[in-house]
Design goal:
With about 150 residues, the protein is an alpha+beta fold. The protein has three helices and nine strands, in the order H-E-E-E-E-E-E-H-E-E-E-H. Mean pLDDT is about 80; it is low at about 5-25.
Length: about 150
């Protein structure tokens, strides 16, 4: 009887580990969405990393599956940046999003929280540079990105 109890306890532990370990080690959700500096019906009002209000589309235009890789880099002045290199499909999506959002913001969200909401100044295609954010945000982006 003691042996059966031990086997049952081990099976329960294995099953619980299978349920909870993926949750504990899950990759943070990375999304890029259209955004606005003024209210848009149906969009969610969020606070940007700079403390200003930003309205964010409920639809993700890109996710981490649209990224081929994420690389740390430094600007000429030594400040850290992150370069997003898109897959071919991701580059097409980003080109469409940047065209639609010309002179408007886009939002980078990690786990549903905006960490960056720059205004689109030019077409973005194969690469985008994340700059002007804290080193903590950059480290979080690097730590959470895992290629699919």
């Amino acid at each position: 009887m003691k042996g059966k109890s031990l086997v049952i306890l081990v099976l329960i532990a294995v099953l619980l580990a299978g349920v909870f370990l993926p949750v504990l080690y899950a990759q943070a959700a990375l999304e890029i969405r259209a955004a606005s500096s003024t209210a848009v019906a149906g969009w969610q009002r969020m606070e940007g990393s700079d403390g200003r209000a930003v309205w964010v589309s409920p639809v993700s235009a890109l996710t981490s599956t649209d990224l081929a890789r994420v690389e740390p880099r430094q600007q000429a002045d030594g400040s850290p940046t992150v370069v997003f290199v898109f897959t071919d499909a991701g580059a097409r999506k980003m080109a469409a999003l940047s065209a639609a959002q010309a002179s408007k913001p886009i939002a980078l969200l990690l786990d549903g929280t905006p960490v960056w909401a720059p205004t689109v100044r030019a077409a973005i295609e194969k690469e985008a540079v994340l700059s002007g954010v804290t080193p903590e945000v950059i480290q979080r982006v690097l730590a959470t990105f895992k290629p699919q």
